[in-house]
């Protein structure tokens, strides 16, 4: 097993009728990081949940909470999602007219600053911000829904961003369609964190699935 691999389950794929039980199950499986998908029905054609649910999850969990903001005007909501308990806040470069300012704002507010790119966004957009960010989230599906098929063309973007990193300390995550069939090629690119929604919560035994994903 590679020692720098982390699995961050997307809670969107969990059973929302019993979040408390789900979070206890996830932590019992050895998970230490959770991925929270926030969707506003504008940036993506779907609506999920807001700060109230993030706060509930924060009260139930010891995990590092990475909050994936798939919303327009993300900086209007930084404060609410940070107060709710987010440890890393990720916004989309396609939804921000002030990427530098937003990254600096997040760090000033005491959280890790993350930037996400859609599959058709050229990783070169990251070049001016490489020393300002703590996390890059590479979308391997078009954002908006869990359970979609992995887009293999995004592997080239993962490799490109690993090269752009050039020893800097920021983490690289991959999000969308990551499962036992696709994770091996994803980890081969050199990324650190694999987000898994259906590929994780679809298993009966989460402890076993966690191990399988780490060792794939
Ligand atoms: C998609 C979300 C992903 C998704 C992952 O817009 O950002 O986090 O929920 O779910 P799976 O792993 O099922 O593709
Ligand atoms: Zn996500």
Estimated share of beta-strand residues: 15-25%
Bound ligands:
D-xylitol-5-phosphate, zinc ion
Assembly state: single chain
Shape type: globular
- Report on the biggest sheet: 8 strands, parallel
- Structural class by SSE content: alpha/beta
3D architecture notes:
- The chain is an alpha/beta fold.
- It is 31% helix and 20% strand.
- It has eight helices and eight strands; from the N terminus they run E-H-E-H-E-H-E-H-E-E-H-E-H-E-H-H.
- It has an eight-stranded parallel beta sheet with strand order 1-8-7-6-5-4-3-2.
- Strand 4 (88-92), helix 4 and strand 5 form a beta-alpha-beta unit.
- It is globular.
- The N and C termini lie close together (8 Å).
- The chain binds D-xylitol-5-phosphate and zinc ion.
- D-xylitol-5-phosphate (DX5) is lined by residues 10, 12-13, 35, 37, 68, 70, 141, 143-144, 146-148, 175-178, 195-199.
- D-xylitol-5-phosphate binds next to strand 2, strand 3, strand 8 and helix 7.
